[in-house]
Amino acid sequence: MSVDRVRIGVVGSGNIAGAHSAAYRLVAGTYADVPRHIDLIAAADVDADRASDLARSWGWQRSSTDWREVTRADDIDVVDICVPNVFHAEIACDALAHGKHVICEKPIANTWEGARDMAAAAAKARRVAQVCFYYRVWPAISWARQLIDLGELGAVRNFRGWMLQDYAANPNHDLGWRARLAESGAGALGDLGSHIIDIARYLCGDITGVYATTRELVERHNPTPGVDDLATMVVDFDGGAGGVLEASWALRGHKCDLGFDLVCERGAIRFAWERSNEVGVLTGDVSDPDNGYKTVLIGGGQPDVGQFVAVPAQGMGYRDAFTIGVSKALRAIARGETSAEPSFEDGLQVALVVDAAMRSAQATAWQPVRKAAEVLAGG
Ligand SMILES: NC(=O)c1ccc[n+]([C@@H]2O[C@H](COP(=O)([O-])OP(=O)(O)OC[C@H]3O[C@@H](n4cnc5c(N)ncnc54)[C@H](O)[C@@H]3O)[C@@H](O)[C@H]2O)c1
After folding, report:
1. Is 18 helix (H, G, I), strand (E, B) or coil?
2. How far is the CA of 81 from the centre of ligand 1 (A)?
3. Which atom of ligand 1 is nearest to the CA of 50?
4. Measured in angstroms, how far is the CA atom of residue 26 from the centroid of ligand 1?
5. CB within 6 Å of ligand 1 — which residues?
6. Average pLDDT for the chain
7. Would you identify the CATH topology of the domain 139-275+277-316?
């Protein structure tokens, strides 16, 4: 029997909780196959004003300063975690232990051990447990995956990917908890690098090894040693392809520059978020001197776009990615399924790459990346 009503509680009422709230407000009208009734029950935050402001702005029915009033509430089905990384594991594991489904912001945790505990708890609880790597659900990117799966481009040969921003190039910018390693787990490598690592493995398969360098680029007023501003990784993929990944929050001129240049045996795909409604596709004969990329404006040919706009180039935006993302979790819940992608196991696999990259940068040596399934099996 399909579930018609889902009751949500959000923990953390800061920046990203607004995008989540908007997605819950829009999702039932956008997709016919998610529960018809999405009830916004409770917003929690250690800062009472933030919780009540979020509740007032988006119509959450009550607010609280204690996350346990969300994870243990009888009238909540889904716990949505929007707090700093260090708190994800404890809150997610408590929610799963109390029978809740969990939607958790990325990176899944501040340590790979926390990520492992979360993935193990999700498997035991048999509840939907999704990590919000929502760039991968963006229609241009999910379409790239479809093109690869169709096989017409042939095997992936090389992946160059990046997630670059510049807001922290300003030494006066307060990075808050992101600059405190104990709360974040890593600097730009974990915060922004986790997105491009997720996309790399979504498109090319698992990363099996990494050589990384990290750099601190900005002299801050409250320097926090070990928090990288720039990470560069050379990676190997399972299928034999290679690649280079970059992550930074302090490279001037890059605003929300998440992109990739994916070259396959018989073609290629290019994407850059700063032109997020376009995707470049190369097919055809390599011996043709006029052979080159065509630019596709995302529209009816790409997944999900038809739910948002009627014709190509009307334009989708950042928050739409969150509506697509939560629709996947809510659809799975409606159908009584116990998993939705990106899963906690995906989150663990990304955490293992981040951990290997940090060890590589420290040791100036290549590091193999363990497989999430083996880690969960106790290996
Ligand atoms: N998917 C994305 O693209 C994306 C974008 C931004 C942030 N994020 C992730 O979302 C999470 C939150 O980031 P943010 O930018 O919203 O941070 P933020 O600092 O704006 O908000 C975090 C909120 O959590 C509250 N908080 C801290 N500890 C708490 C606790 N123990 N219990 C309850 N509330 C607590 C803080 O008071 C704050 O209001 C992080 O994991 C971050 O990496 C993801």
Report:
1. helix
2. 8
3. 39
4. 21
5. 11-16, 44-47, 50, 67, 82-85, 87, 105-106, 132, 134, 176-177, 191
6. 97
7. Dihydrodipicolinate Reductase; domain 2 (3.30.360)
